[in-house]
C-alpha cells in the first residue's frame, strides 16, 4: 500500500537536493530514499521514525538556501499530514 504523503515528501526532498550543495544534497537524497522505502513497505512507519526524519530535516533546513528550504518545508508538511493519520502521540 503506497502512502502518498510520504512519496510526496520524498519528491520534495529530491527537489531540495537538486537546489543545494553536495553534502546537504547527499543527506537529502538519503532521507528521500528512506521515505520512498517507508511509503511502499507493507507496514507503515511509526511516529518515532518520522520524528527522527523531521529532526534531520530541521537541521538541514538551516544549512540550505531559500529554494531548497521551501522544498524541505513542503516535505515536512507532507510528513505531518501523514502523521495525522497515525494512532498514538
Q: Your description of this structure?
A:
- This protein has 89 residues and is mostly helical.
- The protein has one domain (4-83).
- The protein contains four helices and no strands.
- Helix 2 (22-40) runs antiparallel to helix 3 (47-61).
Cα-atom radius of gyration: 12 Å
- Low-pLDDT stretches: none
Instruction: Give the total of domains.
Output: 1
Question: Number of DSSP strands?
Answer: 0
- The number of helices is 4
SSE order in H/E notation?
HHHH
Helical content (DSSP H or I, runs of 4+):
over 70%
Distance between the termini: 23 Å
User: Residue-averaged pLDDT, rounded?
Assistant: 92
Task: Describe the oligomeric state of these chains in a short phrase.
Answer: single chain
Q: Major sheet, described briefly? A: none
Query: So what's the overall shape?
Result: globular
Fraction in beta strands:
under 5%
- What is the SS-derived class? mainly alpha
Helix-strand layout with pairing:
Blueprint: H1 4-18, H2 22-40, H3 47-61, H4 66-83
List key phrases describing it:
single chain; 89 residues; mainly alpha; 4 helices
Outline of this structure?
The chain has four helices and no strands.
Amino acid at each position: 500500500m503506497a502512502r502518498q504523503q510520504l512519496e510526496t515528501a520524498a519528491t520534495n526532498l529530491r527537489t531540495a537536493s537538486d537546489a543545494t550543495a553536495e553534502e546537504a544534497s547527499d543527506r537529502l537524497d538519503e532521507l528521500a530514499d528512506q521515505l520512498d522505502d517507508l511509503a511502499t513497505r507493507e507496514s507503515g512507519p511509526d511516529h518515532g521514525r518520522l520524528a527522527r526524519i523531521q529532526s534531520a530535516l530541521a537541521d538541514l533546513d538551516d544549512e540550505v538556501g531559500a529554494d531548497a528550504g521551501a522544498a524541505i518545508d513542503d516535505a515536512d508538511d507532507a510528513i505531518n499530514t501523514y502523521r495525522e493519520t497515525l494512532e498514538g502521540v
